[in-house]
Structures are given as structure tokens and as C-alpha cells.
TrEMBL record:
Keywords: Signal. Residues 1-18 form the signal peptide. This is CHU large protein. NCBIfam families: Por_Secre_tail. InterPro entries: GBD_T9SS_assoc (IPR056600), Secre_tail (IPR026444). Residues 22-133, 145-257, 270-385 form the T9SS-like galactose binding domain. Residues 405-468 form the Secretion system C-terminal sorting domain. Pfam families: GBD_T9SS_assoc, Por_Secre_tail. It comes from Jejuia pallidilutea.
Length: 472
């Protein structure tokens, strides 16, 4: 009976610690590799120990198990062993060429379809019998069709934002310089588009992993480069451009944020002070619907706090017919407002979101509406409201304000009729420049003036009023 117990014990022990069937390369266990993640469990507990060279080039006692797979398509393969106990080697045949070797993880690149690959999972003597973390995951990434500039994918552009998904894990990584001028290994995919109008292009990658570079052609000139986002300005209508979307090799296999948004902005007509759009502020708060400021040019200039940054702006103008205030309300601190009395002058005042330009004399003013580059492409609260408030009028002021100018428009002569005695009359241009001063109230000669709009100021008993009239 004693001999029977010993026999059973030895049999059970041998079964419990049986040598793995894939303990050597010739008996490698086949696994199926696809674009989905596959998890493979292994056991090195009773694998044979051998003195062999590891990934670091040093000879150590290792135990290993072997697997094999056939590459389903052209591309790359990522093997994740979770931690440094698990070393991974890849060869093209038993006793063949070592393709790659790594601790904890391994990446195989540029593997052709139908290629047979052998995987060696090995642990050193310290960890080979530890039952924890005895598994690895494996995933293949197919080479994308737009892996090169010549095979770029076209993106039709309109006035609406488009989301573009992409796959980059199977791309060929090459050494190059990114936007930060740092030389690293990058993987990229390519797109092209035709600009539908003169203007700007905005790319939003949602993460710093996604980087962009805009070219005028394959092997052409790099026009713009950005990480996470890119605003390319001054692009030309009906012109073709190339977009390189790229990631560092550390991020190319990360499965999140594999998309970007693209939006074209038509060039704004009021991008400069000289092309300012006229406004007519009244006591009633009036909404101003602005064009997308993202279509403006980028200027490295000062903001309200005299800080020099990249800003985009649009311009408006208005004329004060009498001394008063201009009030502005908007929905965000991103909106900045700066007032000038001349396109080549110095700013009078500046504020963000809400504010007022107080006690403005008669004349024409130019309003700069601007945002920092980081906020310029957001449609949030891009519009604003504007109103004017005149000085509080006395009874005499109200009477003087009721004076009439005729004819209006006028060609050669102008007359004024008022319930108060007019002591003096001034005619000014819209910039506030004095052109005529007279005490006449009838048949005032105006034929010397050019065709256009003018301001007439009527003075009486220490007060005045201003009115707008037109010279034919």
C-alpha cells in the first residue's frame, strides 16, 4: 500500500508541474492575431531553464514559452506584457533572425501580410514560477491607405465643421522634427482639401497627442504647424493643400481621440480699420451679429492689459452726433473691445466683456473687437450689444435739439430754423475736423464741400446740439 501512495504522489506532482507543450520553439502554440486585442495566458512554472542572452544582451538563466502567428495584413503589431517580469522576443523562424526584443512590451513594425512570426515569452530565474501576471495582449494595426502624402484622402470643405476619424497605429514611423523642432520618431497620415474661399482653416485635435502640419504640396513647403490645434491664415480660394496628421511613436497606438475637427472660415470684410463696418448706436440696446472672427488675420500686438499676444480682430465705426457714452454688453471675457478716434491713432480705452466708453465728444470712432488666438475660433458669445447714452438735456437743450436743417440733402446753400436764437454754426466732417464757422442761419454757402455726410453744430446761450446732414 505504501508503494501505491508514493506512485500516486509522484504521478500527481508530475501532472501539476508538467512541462509546457510550447516550451521550445518547434512546438510554438499558434495564436490568431487581428485588429482586436487578444489576451493570451501562459505558464512558465515548469518550463525548462537555460542560460541565454536577454534583451539587454546579458546572459541570464531564463524559462520561456513560445507562440506563433501569421500577420493578417501589412502593418504593425503591439505586444503588451504588463510588467518587466515578462520579456518578449520576436523572430522570423526557430534559430532565425531576431526581429525585436523588449521588456514588458514590444512593437513590431512594417510586417508584411502572411508573414509568420514567432514570439518568445521569457522570465528570469527569480520570477518564472511566480503565478502573477502570466498573460500578455497582442494587437495588429493595418497600414492605413493614406500613410503617404501621395495617397492622401480628400476632405470636402464647406462652412460647417467636419469631424474626421483616422487610424494611425499601422503607419510607418520615421524620424523627423515636429512643431517644437524636436527630433523624434513620428507616425503620420495624410489628407488634402481645396479651399472653398479666401480665408483661414482651423484644425482641432482634442488632445496634444494629435499634431498637424499644413503643406502647399507633397514634398513642398511647410506653411503652418500646431499641436492639439492649428489655425492656418491667409489661405487662397480654389487652392489645394495637404494636411499631415501625426503622433509620436509613444502615442501612435493609443486608441483614444482618433479624430479631428476641421472648419474653414471665410475672410472677414472688416478685418482692418479702413474696412470698418458702420454702426448706428441708439438708446435702445442693439445686437450686433458679428462674422466669425476666425476669418481674420493674426496680429501679434497688445491687448487691454498691454500684454503682447496673438490676436484676431474685426472693426466697426460709429459717429457721435453729440457728446455722450457708448455702452457694450457681451457674453464672455474672451471678447475684448478697444476704441480709437482715428485708424492710425492711439487707443482711447479698452475693456473685456462689458463696459462703456464715457463722455465721448462729437466725431467718428473706430471700434476694435478682438480675441486671443486661443479663443478666436470658438462660436461661443461671438455677438455683442451696443447702445448710446446722450448727456442729460435741459429745457433749452431740448428746444435747441428740435431745430431743423433744410434742405437736407443740400447742394449749394443750407438754412437753419430754431425756436432759440442761433449764435454760431459750425460744419465738421465725420472725423470732427472744423470746415466752416459762421453766424449765418440762412443761405449758408456749402458748394465748396465735397459730396458726402457732415455734422452741423448749432450754438445758443452756452449750449449746442449736433445734427447730421448730407451734401449732394
Amino acid at each position: 500500500m505504501k508503494h501505491l501512495y508514493i506512485f500516486l504522489f509522484l504521478t500527481i506532482t508530475n501532472l501539476a508541474f508538467a512541462q509546457p507543450v510550447n516550451d521550445n520553439c518547434s512546438n510554438a502554440e499558434p495564436i490568431t492575431v487581428s485588429s482586436e486585442v487578444t489576451t493570451v495566458n501562459f505558464n512558465t512554472t515548469n518550463a525548462s531553464l537555460n542560460n541565454e542572452i536577454g534583451c539587454d544582451g546579458n546572459v541570464t538563466t531564463y524559462a520561456d514559452v513560445w507562440y506563433s502567428f501569421t500577420m493578417p495584413f501589412d502593418g504593425n503589431v503591439v505586444i503588451d506584457g504588463s510588467l518587466f517580469w515578462n520579456n518578449i522576443g520576436a523572430t522570423n523562424a526557430c534559430n532565425g533572425n531576431l526581429l525585436a526584443c523588449g521588456s514588458a512590451e514590444l512593437t513590431l513594425t512594417n510586417i508584411s501580410a502572411n508573414t509568420n512570426v514567432l514570439i518568445r515569452i521569457f522570465r528570469n530565474f527569480t520570477y518564472y514560477q511566480n503565478p502573477q501576471f502570466q498573460s500578455f495582449s497582442i494587437q495588429a494595426f493595418e497600414t492605413p491607405t493614406n500613410d503617404t502624402c501621395d495617397n492622401s484622402i480628400n476632405i470636402p470643405l464647406g462652412i460647417l465643421q467636419t469631424q474626421v476619424p483616422f487610424e494611425i497605429g499601422g503607419s510607418v514611423a520615421n524620424s523627423g522634427k515636429g512643431c517644437s523642432n524636436t527630433t523624434l520618431d513620428y507616425a503620420d497620415v495624410w489628407y488634402d482639401f481645396t479651399m472653398p474661399f479666401d480665408g483661414n482653416l482651423f484644425l482641432d485635435g482634442n488632445t496634444i497627442w494629435n499634431k498637424f502640419e499644413l503643406y502647399d504640396a507633397c514634398s513642398g513647403t511647410s506653411l503652418f504647424c500646431g499641436e492639439d490645434t492649428l489655425l492656418a491664415v491667409g489661405l487662397t480660394d480654389n487652392t489645394d493643400y495637404k494636411i499631415r496628421v501625426y503622433r509620436s511613436v509613444e502615442d501612435m497606438f493609443t486608441p483614444t481621440f482618433l479624430n479631428f475637427n476641421i472648419l474653414a472660415y471665410q475672410a472677414t470684410i472688416n478685418d482692418s480699420c479702413n474696412n470698418a463696418i458702420p454702426l448706428n448706436p441708439t438708446e435702445t440696446l442693439t445686437a450686433v451679429t458679428t462674422p466669425f472672427i476666425g476669418g481674420s488675420s493674426i496680429e501679434n500686438t497688445t491687448g487691454c492689459t498691454n500684454d503682447v499676444k496673438d490676436y484676431l480682430d474685426i472693426w466697426y465705426s460709429f459717429t457721435m452726433l453729440e457728446e455722450g457714452n457708448i455702452n457694450i454688453i457681451s457674453g464672455t471675457v474672451w471678447n475684448l473691445f478697444e476704441l480709437y478716434n482715428d485708424c492710425n491713432g492711439s487707443p482711447i480705452s479698452c475693456f473685456s466683456q462689458n463696459g462703456a466708453f464715457n463722455t465721448l465728444p462729437i466725431g467718428t470712432y473706430y471700434l476694435r473687437v478682438f480675441r486671443e488666438l486661443a479663443f478666436a475660433t470658438s462660436p461661443v458669445s461671438k455677438d455683442f450689444n451696443i447702445s448710446s447714452t446722450a448727456k442729460t438735456l435741459s429745457t433749452d437743450s431740448i428746444q435747441l435739439d428740435s431745430a431743423s436743417i433744410f434742405p437736407n440733402p443740400a447742394l449749394d446753400y443750407l438754412s437753419v430754423q430754431s425756436p432759440l436764437k442761433i449764435e454760431e454754426i459750425e460744419i465738421l466732417d465725420l472725423n470732427g475736423k472744423l470746415l466752416l464757422s459762421t453766424k449765418l442761419t440762412e443761405n449758408i454757402p456749402i458748394s465748396f464741400l465735397q459730396k458726402g455726410s457732415y455734422i452741423i453744430k448749432l450754438f445758443s446761450n452756452g449750449i449746442y446740439t449736433s445734427k447730421l446732414w448730407v451734401k449732394k
